[in-house]
Design brief:
The protein is mainly α. It has one domain. The chain is built from 5 helices and no strands. The longest helix is centred in the middle third of the chain and has 16 residues. The two termini are 63 Å apart. The relative contact order is 0.05.
């Protein structure tokens, strides 16, 4: 694990995103690990469709939390500052293309013959 904080934040984000499905996961785990106790306690009290009722109550609570706190009924405007971009589209001019062998010519000429290398005396 290179960045444990990133994994914790990812786990927190996934948990928040999948929060509406947690009653289904909880019910399936309860049916898998403790089926007799779950049926005797939860299904006897809330019935066979207890997960849908729980999900509906969670959705109702979430919708009540997300309502606006503006109780006066007056409209208010929201000002958002945005950056204005000016796009200057300039067509590039046609440049002449040179090959490297033509542009960078060597100033010395090479002899076209097989000659021995120079001898250095020390």
């Amino acid at each position: 694990m290179r960045f444990p904080a990133a994994y914790y934040l990812l786990l927190l984000y996934v948990t928040i995103m999948l929060k509406p499905l947690l009653p289904l996961v909880n019910d399936s785990l309860a049916h898998f690990f403790a089926e007799e106790k779950h049926i005797a306690v939860v299904h006897a009290k809330y019935g066979a469709c207890h997960t849908s009722a729980e999900m509906a109550s969670n959705a109702k609570d979430d919708s009540n939390k997300n309502q606006s706190s503006n109780t006066t009924g007056e409209e208010f405007s929201v000002h958002v500052a945005i950056a204005e971009f000016a796009y200057n589209i300039i067509q590039p001019s046609a440049h002449r293309q040179y090959f490297a062998s033509l542009k960078y010519r060597l100033t010395t000429n090479f002899l076209a013959g097989n000659y021995p290398p120079p001898k250095f005396t020390l």
